[in-house]
TrEMBL record:
SUPFAM superfamilies linked to this entry: S-adenosyl-L-methionine-dependent methyltransferases
Top-level taxon in the UniProt lineage: Eukaryota
Entries under InterPro entries matching the protein: Lys/N-term_MeTrsfase_sf, Methyltranfer_dom, SAM-dependent_MTases_sf
Family: Belongs to the methyltransferase superfamily.
An example Gene Ontology biological process: methylation
Cross-referenced Gene3D superfamilies: Vaccinia Virus protein VP39
CDD domains: AdoMet_MTases
Keywords for the protein's UniProt record, in alphabetical order: Methyltransferase, Mitochondrion, S-adenosyl-L-methionine, Transferase, Transit peptide
Native species: Anabarilius grahami (Kanglang fish)
Organism taxonomic ancestry: Eukaryota, Metazoa, Chordata, Craniata, Vertebrata
GO terms of molecular function: methyltransferase activity
Pfam families documented for this protein: Methyltransf_31
Protein name listed in UniProt: Citrate synthase-lysine N-methyltransferase CSKMT, mitochondrial
Length: 220
């Protein structure tokens, strides 16, 4: 699950079925909009210019384009995935669907990106929000992927602004995920606060929103 070729094959097979359809891991935007939009509105009180948002490991999910379309605040949403096949499918679909934003100053972009290389693409303290819907869950299912998932969390903390937040949507129980997250952020150069809220139950599975925010205070 941590190999680029696996996802290229997956999205090639899905893209060959005819008419494009967004593929959603776990759930779509409607299930989590109340976790995302209020955070942006709260941030907007002390923010000028568009919010820089990264949908990390976007695949062909409609999450990023939906935020672009629904956010009353100006946003610059970058949908990034390791698979160029997924990125091209999303670009083609979005262009053909002519998605229009709620805020005329908003922007939407698609990017081929290995999310273990965030530092090479985004500047230190340059992003307001990073979204991870299922990406970490896919990675932690393999031993090699667990190491990559930890690298990604630590790099997220470097590229997030002090007021920024990483939102991880997962079906992993807090008893396990919180322990893992707290261990990974202890290994980061920046300290971080880790919290969790329950998204709810969908199709018999409980989902959670893990919030990881950089701390301004140094290591104690």
């Amino acid at each position: 699950m941590d190999k680029k070729a696996t996802w290229d094959r997956f999205y090639t097979e899905n893209g060959s079925k005819g008419q494009f359809k967004n593929f959603e891991w776990f759930f779509g935007f409607q299930s989590v909009k109340d976790f995302i939009l209020p955070v942006l509105l709260t941030m907007s009180h002390s923010h000028s210019g568009p919010f820089n948002i990264l949908d990390m490991g976007c695949g062909t999910s409609a999450l990023g384009p939906s935020i672009y379309r629904a956010s009353p605040c100006a946003v610059k949403v970058t949908c990034a995935d390791i698979s160029p096949v997924a990125v091209k499918l999303m670009e083609k679909h979005t262009n053909s669907a002519s998605v229009q934003p709620c805020n005329p100053s908003s922007a939407l972009a698609f990017l081929e990106l290995d999310c273990t290389q965030l530092r090479g693409r985004f500047g230190t303290r340059s992003l307001d929000m990073i979204l991870d819907k299922g990406t970490t869950d896919a990675l932690v299912r393999s031993k090699e992927g667990q190491v990559k998932a930890g690298q990604i969390v630590r790099q997220c903390l470097e590229v997030l602004k002090p007021s920024g937040v990483l939102l991880q949507f997962s079906d992993e129980d807090p008893d396990a995920r919180l322990v893992w997250l707290e261990r990974e952020v202890r290994g980061a150069e920046l300290t971080a606060d880790v919290g969790v809220q329950e998204v709810g139950e969908l199709r018999g599975v409980s989902y959670f929103c893990y919030q990881i925010s950089p701390c301004t205070s140094p290591h104690s």
